[in-house]
Structure formats: structure tokens, C-alpha cells
């Protein structure tokens, strides 16, 4: 009522307020306005979460405020008393042993589902003896476990109904239970193939701040990523979306060789791993065979533009990943000389959403990058979690030059980078779960010298020298990549980078001058500047001690003034 901003209570409502205000708000007063609106929205939601009886008491309190002054201390005392009364209810003493037994039944490998059903009936009987207010406070817990039981038993309709009731109930009363219930309901909806319910739960994860803004669509690849975690949690059930097994084992009596039978239909999609993956003979040849196998398949009318609908994988992506992982580019080079379509060279594959251009940039193959662009690859298409190929190439160049810089690793361990399939296989699917899972992996990596040596060897295998990465950047610039493409490291950051500004931080004078020669604007600023400080390329170079860049910019400014 005093109008003070609720700064500690801004998440997740502040992003919602910012989204609706857009860019129309007065910058001078924007922060104050956002704080106040966020406060009102927070209290409006909190007020709706109260029981109807409590709301009426609050309204009456406003009417009687002058006769009965209100204080925060008095409110806190009453709230504590109410919590003690709630904790002392008979239902709590009788429900805790039941819930403990139910959790134990679910946690063991050989579940006693009859016992779970019996305990759930007893729990429901306890709930029905309480008043409507306390009944709502416990009902969602029953519905949660009832949904899990129905899911395990294969009663999909019942499971979906119970999960829907549980999420609706926990939305207002659940507190710490919101995350596990919403997470489980989301995974089950995805695994069961109910895209409408899954999208509903997915939206709620952003409303609660469990996923970071800006909101990502729950598209086919996002569902496939979540499906890995569904199969982990609801084993042995299989997701409706076709996802590969954790490990696909292929046994052969001899090295791969495409057969005459396969050549009769080189584009036939053949199921592998009990139908969980599909590939054509041409794709298998690109993945495991020799150049001769691939040429024979192409000669037999194999389509290099073919792809698997659910994953986006095709002959080109398999060949490029083979080149990147195994250092074997022969088949990739051959396929890139064929008449590939624009759709093929821009198609995202796997849950990592890898385009052929992204893979070529990762392996620092400037010739492959150039050929892909000639074939129609879009250099301004998003690449990994940055907005363009040039932004991604600059990020990798930074890693090659500054090998000891731990910024990227720290961001990954803090859960700030996008969730991937490896996270999902370990049960972490929401952004707020990533840091815990990744830090556990880091602890395992550092647990022994052998583990650390394996990790370091793997990182070294994928590392590339700086010069090939410079060639990739120059190639992208040659074909018109935008040196001034704006992007933020994190959505809520004030600073907006460009490849040119980032090059001033990287400190590589050759690449910096190349960017400037291709239109890189050194006068663009990271954020709004003041009369005393301008956050341009010179400021970035000075801040990071890049003396060669500073010298270049100072001389350039002098030359410009003399002209």
C-alpha cells in the first residue's frame, strides 16, 4: 500500500511485465514502473491463491483499517500461529506414514501396486474427512500419486486426468511440490503423445520460472528431447515420439558393405534398434561404409536430399558428423559436390538442432563452409544458441585462442546454456534442473586423475587450432555474413554484442580488421552510453587489455579526423 517495489519477489512475474510493456515504455521511468507493476501482479496472484474465507477476511480488514491498525509484525505472528495449527491437524499425523509407504513402493524395482492402491484409498478417505480448505491442500498430493500409478499400469486416460487435477491443485497450494508434479505431468504428456496437455504444462514451466525466458516452442525436437527423460522415469514404457536407445549396438560379421538387395531400394527407410531409429541404406553407407558404398548407392538412385522426418537426419549430416568425430571427411567432400537442395543444407538434425553449416564451423573446415553457402546455406540462421553462423564462429575462435578461459564451462555448469539430450537422459529437462545435474557430472569428471585425463583427451580431440577457425570467419564474411548482428549472452542482459564488438574482446587483430573491412561498425555500443562513458569497441578492447585493437582504433580515429 505504501507503493514500495517488491524487488525480492520479481521472478517470474517481472519477465511477464516486461513482455507486455515491450519497447513502448519511457526508459527514464521504466525500471520504477516495472517494479511497481511486478509488485501488483505478484500480490494479485498471491491473493487469488488464498482460500475464499481468507479473502473475505482481508477485504473486511481493509474496511476496518482505521479502527484496527494493521502491522507486518502482527501479520507474521498470526501467520506463524496458523502454520502451527495446520501442522498439528490429525490428517498430517496419519497421512505422513501413508505417503512414506507409497513413495517406498514406487522407489523399489518390484513395485507392489496393489499396496499403493490400498494406501491411496486410505489417503483419499482421510482427505474427505477434512474441511474444504484443508481438503484442497492435500488433494493434489493424492492426485499426483494416483496419476503415477495409472501411468505405470498403462491407464493413459486416468493418468492424464489425475495429473491435470494435480497440477491445477498444486498451482495454488503446493509450494515445493510444484516442480516435481509439473515436471512429471509434462514428461508423461510428452511420452503419451498428448501434445495439447504437454504444451499446457510447458507454458506453465515458463510462468513459474522453471524455464528461462524467452519462451521456446514445444516443437518436435523439443518433445523428442523430453521423451528421453520420460523413458527413464516411466521405464519400460516407450514414448510415442520415436527416440533412439541410450546405446545402439550393431553386430556385423564383416566390415560394412552395401548389398545388392539394399541397392534395389537405397531410399527405403529401415527400422533399427527395435524400430526406435530409422535409416536408409544410403544413410548407413554414409555413416559406416566406404566412399565406394556411397557412390554405388547414389548410382542406384539413392537420394542425398532424403531425410528422416522425426530426427531431420540425412546422408549429409551423417557424413559430416563422421568427418567431425572421426576425422574422415572423404564421404562428406563427395556429397558436397552433388546437387544438394537448399532445404538439405539448412535442415536442423537431432535434438541438438545441428545444421550442416554448424557442423562445418565446429570442425573448422572453411572449404566445407564455402561449399554449403554456395549450395544455399543461410549464414544468418541461428547456430546453436547464438543467432548466426558468424556469431558461432567467433565464439569458437575465442575458445581456440583463449584455451584457459573457463567462461563457457562456467556458464554450462551453471545451467545457462541450452538443455541437451544428455541432461534429459539423466532426468534434467527444465532449465532450473541443469546446474545440479551438470555439477554432479563435473564432480565425477574430477573424482579421479583417470577421469580427468579422459575428459581432457576428449576435449583435445575436438579442439581446433586458431588459424583454421580464422579461415572460417573470413569465409563467412566473404559471403556477406553480418558483422553487426546484435545478440545478448543472456536474454535479460542489458549488453547487446555484435561479432565486431566481441572481436574487440577476443583480441585477434587480423580477424578484427577483417570484420571492420567487411562493414563491422566499431562505433556501435554494448548498451546505452553516457556523456562520460561510451561502451563501444574501444571501450571493450581497453577493458580486456587488447592493446593491438586499442592501437588500431586510435590510429584509425586519428586518420579519420585528419581526412
Main β sheet profile: 2 strands, antiparallel
Q: Beta fraction of the residues?
A: under 5%
Determine the mean pLDDT: 89
Q: Using the 3D structure, state the CATH architecture of the domain at 90-233.
A: Alpha Horseshoe
Which geometry do the CA atoms define? flat
Task: Please give the order of strands in the largest beta sheet.
Answer: 1-2
Please count the helical segments: 29
Radius of gyration (CA) equals: 29 Å
What is the CATH topology classification name of the domain at 90-233?
Serine Threonine Protein Phosphatase 5, Tetratricopeptide repeat
> Termini distance?
61 Å
CATH C-level name of the domain at 90-233: Mainly Alpha
Number of strands: 2
Structural class: mainly alpha
Low-confidence stretches: none
Describe the structure.
The chain is mainly α and 563 residues long. Among the domains are: 7-87, no CATH class; 90-233, Serine Threonine Protein Phosphatase 5, Tetratricopeptide repeat, CATH 1.25.40; 482-563, Alpha Horseshoe (Serine Threonine Protein Phosphatase 5, Tetratricopeptide repeat). It is built from 29 helices and two strands. Strands 1-2 form a two-stranded antiparallel ribbon. A hairpin with a 4-residue loop joins strand 1 and strand 2 (277-279). Helix 7 (132-153) packs antiparallel against helix 8.
Amino acid at each position: 500500500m505504501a507503493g514500495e517495489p517488491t524487488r525480492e519477489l520479481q521472478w517470474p512475474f517481472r519477465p511477464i511485465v516486461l513482455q507486455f510493456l515491450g519497447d513502448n515504455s519511457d526508459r527514464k521511468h521504466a525500471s520504477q514502473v516495472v517494479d511497481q507493476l511486478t509488485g501488483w501482479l505478484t500480490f494479485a496472484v498471491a491473493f487469488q491463491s488464498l482460500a475464499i474465507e481468507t479473502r473475505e477476511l482481508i477485504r473486511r480488514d481493509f474496511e476496518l483499517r482505521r479502527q484496527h491498525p494493521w502491522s507486518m509484525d502482527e501479520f507474521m505472528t498470526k501467520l506463524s500461529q496458523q502454520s502451527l495449527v495446520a501442522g498439528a491437524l490429525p490428517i498430517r499425523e496419519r497421512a505422513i506414514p501413508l505417503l512414506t509407504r507409497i513413495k517406498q513402493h514406487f522407489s523399489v524395482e518390484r513395485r507392489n501396486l496393489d499396496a499403493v492402491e490400498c494406501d491411496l484409498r486410505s489417503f483419499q478417505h482421510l482427505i474427505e474427512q477434512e474441511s474444504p480448505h484443508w481438503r484442497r491442500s492435500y488433494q493434489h498430493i493424492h492426485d499426483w500419486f494416483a496419476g503415477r500409478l495409472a501411468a505405470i499400469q498403462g491407464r493413459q486416460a486416468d493418468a492424464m486426468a489425475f495429473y491435470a487435477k494435480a497440477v491445477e491443485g498444486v498451482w495454488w497450494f503446493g509450494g515445493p511440490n510444484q516442480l516435481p508434479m509439473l515436471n512429471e505431468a509434462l514428461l508423461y504428456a510428452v511420452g503419451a503423445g498428448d501434445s495439447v496437455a504437454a504444451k499446457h504444462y510447458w507454458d506453465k514451466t515458463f510462468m513459474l520460472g522453471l524455464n528461462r525466458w524467452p519462451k521456446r516452442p514445444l516443437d518436435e525436437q523439443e518433445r523428442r528431447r523430453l521423451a528421453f527423460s520420460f523413458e527413464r522415469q516411466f521405464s519400460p514404457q516407450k514414448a510415442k515420439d520415436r527416440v533412439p536407445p541410450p546405446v545402439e549396438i550393431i553386430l556385423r560379421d564383416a566390415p560394412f558393405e552395401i548389398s545388392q538387395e539394399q541397392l534395389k531400394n537405397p531410399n527405403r527407410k529401415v527400422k533399427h534398434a527395435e524400430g526406435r531409429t530409422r535409416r536408409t541404406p544410403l544413410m548407413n553407407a554414409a555413416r559406416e561404409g566406404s566412399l565406394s558404398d556411397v557412390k554405388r548407392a547414389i548410382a542406384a538412385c539413392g537420394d542425398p536430399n532424403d531425410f528422416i522426418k522425426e530426427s531431420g537426419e540425412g546422408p549429409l549430416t551423417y557424413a559430416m558428423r563422421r568427418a567431425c568425430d572421426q576425422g574422415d571427411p572423404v564421404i562428406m567432400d563427395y556429397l558436397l559436390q552433388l546437387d544438394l537442395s537448399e532445404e538439405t543444407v539448412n535442415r536442423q538434425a537431432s535434438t541438438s538442432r545441428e545444421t550442416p553449416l554448424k557442423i562445418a564451423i565446429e570442425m573448422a573446415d572453411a572449404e566445407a563452409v564455402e561449399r554449403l553457402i554456395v549450395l544455399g546455406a543461410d549464414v544468418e540462421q541461428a547456430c546453436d544458441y547464438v543467432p548466426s553462423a558468424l556469431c558461432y564462429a567467433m565464439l569458437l575462435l575465442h575458445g581456440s585462442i583463449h584455451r584457459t578461459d573457463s567462461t563457457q564451462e562456467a556458464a554450462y555448469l551453471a545451467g545457462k546454456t541450452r538443455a541437451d539430450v544428455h541432461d534429459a537422459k539423466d532426468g534434467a529437462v527444465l532449465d532450473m534442473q541443469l546446474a545440479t545435474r551438470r555439477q554432479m557430472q563435473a564432480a565425477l569428471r574430477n573424482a579421479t586423475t583417470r577421469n580427468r585425463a579422459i575428459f581432457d583427451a576428449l576435449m583435445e580431440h575436438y579442439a581446433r587450432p586458431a588459424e583454421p577457425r580464422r579461415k572460417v570467419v573470413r569465409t563467412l564474411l566473404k559471403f556477406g555474413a553480418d558483422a553487426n548482428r546484435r545478440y545478448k549472452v543472456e536474454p535479460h542482459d542489458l549488453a547487446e554484442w555484435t561479432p565486431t564488438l566481441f572481436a574487440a574482446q577476443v583480441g585477434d587483430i587480423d580477424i578484427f580488421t577483417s570484420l571492420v573491412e567487411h562493414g563491422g561498425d566499431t562505433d556501435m555500443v554494448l548498451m546505452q552510453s553516457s556523456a562520460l562513458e561510451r561502451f563501444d569497441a574501444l571501450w571493450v578492447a581497453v577493458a580486456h587489455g587488447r592493446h593491438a585493437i586499442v592501437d588500431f582504433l586510435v590510429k584509425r580515429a586519428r586518420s579519420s579526423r585528419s581526412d
